[in-house]
Amino acid sequence: MPETQRRPESRYGNRPTMKDVAARAGVGLKTVSRVVNGEAGVTPETERRVQESIDALGFRRNDSARVLRKGRTASIGLILEDLADPFYGPLSRAVEEVARAHGALLINGSSAEDPDREQELALALCARRVDGLVVIPAGDDHRYLEPEMKAGVATVFVDRPAGRIDADCVLSDNFGGARAGVAHLVAQGHRRIGFIGDMPRIHTAAERLRGYRAAMEDAGIGVEDAWMSLGATDPARVRRAAEEMLSGTAPVTAVFSGNNRVTVTVIRVLAEQTRRVALVAFDDLELADLLQPAVTVVAQDAAALGRTAADRLFRQLDGTLLVPERIELPTRLITRGSGELPPAD
């Protein structure tokens, strides 16, 4: 290839080093190190030359050596169920804000509700020496984290408790919230109330079912098996469950939906009905107040869950928390119209 057509040598992957900065600025490595780390002992003129070289070369400090010296990476991991779930947006943002306030980087990952994937992701983050983990668990056995926790990895579980280990956890009052939501439907005169929830092995789904049963028992209402359906939250399964509850000679007159993904499908099914069916949903959802009727919900404070979990994580890192605790945050019933509809028959 002629000289004029020869491509310039690529520097991809060859990041500028402090040695490069020192050579360009005409100073020693120790001087560059002092400027980079904000240490005293450098004249303003020399600091200016070093900073100009840093800017010109695009130099960024490599924290690896500092990590080895201090034993901290200033990073934490957050393992979610599904990054696309709207519920986790405010939770993740709250964790990130707390981490940022402590000068730490947040690394997100999704377990896709797979216990094996959760374990793989958690251990991969630990291998990269994160200082702590905030985990929304997919599995029910977290003994695999015991060696990491003993080695100093701060760990807090959020939304669901850890399985088979003693660890900090921050939860919503799933039982009390569901109980209040179903009791609200009972107060409107409903006796045939359906419950559609997530997989029964999931802590939140089991607690919300327990709250539903408790509210019905409080009202002296015997629950029929046909009124309850737990399983995957995919639209096809939820639609079948809703349509079965709403059909027959004695259909349900109200539905309590167990989470926001279930609620979206239930709303679509109810819109196809010729009679009005009351609905109370666990979890608020975007535009719920603009529907006709607007959706009555049992709302969790996802941001408070994330903020509380992250605060506890950094208190562990600071050495101010020694005994694991279970913290349960309250839910709030927001009445908007769908939960106040009377029975159609």
Distance from first to last alpha carbon? 86 Å
Rough outline: elongated
Overall pLDDT metric: 92
Helix/strand class:
alpha/beta
Structural summary, described in words:
- It is elongated and about 90 Å long.
- α1 (18-25) packs across α2 (29-36), α5 packs parallel to α12 and α8 (174-187) runs parallel beside α9 (203-218).
- The protein has helices at residues 18-25, 29-36, 44-57, 64-70, 88-101, 115-127, 146-150, 174-187, 203-218, 235-245, 260-271, 302-318, and strands at residues 75-80, 105-110, 132-135, 154-158, 168-172, 193-197, 228-230, 254-257, 278-282, 296-299, 326-329, 332-334.
- α11 (260-271) links the parallel β8 (254-257) and β9 (278-282).
- The strands form two sheets. It has a six-stranded parallel beta sheet with strand order 2-1-3-4-5-11, with helices on both faces. The chain has a six-stranded mixed beta sheet with strand order 7-6-8-9-10-12, sandwiched between helices.
- The protein is of the alpha/beta class and 345 residues long.
